[in-house]
Design goal:
single chain; alpha/beta; Glutaredoxin; 2 domains; 8-stranded mixed beta sheet; 8 helices; 8 strands; globular
Length: about 210
């Protein structure tokens, strides 16, 4: 059974047709899939079939362990986005990017394809100045309307800096991890397991936190 009806498929295709360059999705799952894994695979297959510049590949976390390790995938379901040169820009989705998060997912694809506005000069300067490795984890709930903006901000920072990796994590799909990080409200944004922000924040607040690491 298809996840998207014809109307939604056309809407998504129209958006994906605005892609500038190619983007590749790498989906990691396992042989005997959990329900979320199965739903996410169907999601990737349906989205991946809509855009001429969008392709996808499905991998097994165990059988393709070396590839998973290369991209730092230690839990599933997981989606990695690669740009037209097959470069890893540090963009990850852990869990099904459905509900409101389809906006951050489609947005990341479009921006990674090159169809994005340049950052303001001062913001770009601060991003370029990031000199340490930064891992941003954005915990979300798929029914949270403000969570996609936090995910999009984290992913945009990752696109702009080789030192930054950003994960969307569905808190409900990864409860032990959410409990570890004391996620009681979303979006909750964790920086290098040290500092955090809760709620909607502009990119300047993300950079303020990164600069304190």
């Amino acid at each position: 059974m298809a996840l998207f009806n014809d109307k939604v498929r056309k809407q998504l295709k129209d958006i994906l047709d605005t892609m500038k360059d190619e983007v590749r999705l790498l989906y990691f799952t396992q042989g005997i899939e959990c329900q979320v894994c199965s739903d996410t695979r169907k999601f990737v297959e349906e989205i991946g079939s809509l855009g001429g510049r969008l392709t996808f590949a499905i991998h097994d976390l165990v059988a393709d362990g070396a590839l998973a390790a290369r991209y730092g995938i230690d839990k599933i379901p997981a989606i990695v986005l690669l740009d037209a040169g097959d470069n890893d820009r540090g963009i990850r989705f852990f869990g099904l990017p459905g509900g409101y998060e389809i906006n951050s997912f489609i947005g990341a694809i479009i921006e990674l394809s090159g169809a994005r506005e340049p950052l303001p000069d001062e913001i770009a300067r601060r991003v370029k100045a990031v000199s340490k490795d930064v891992h941003i984890q954005v915990f979300v709930n798929l029914t949270c309307p403000v969570c996609p903006s936090a995910v999009a901000t984290a992913h945009r920072l990752a696109m702009e800096s080789d030192r930054i990796r950003a994960d969307m994590i569905d808190a409900n799909a990864f409860m032990p991890l959410a409990i570890k990080h004391h996620v009681t409200g979303v979006p909750k944004i964790i920086f290098n397991d040290k500092l955090e922000l809760v709620g909607a924040h502009p990119m300047t607040a993300f950079l303020d936190t990164i600069e304190k690491l």
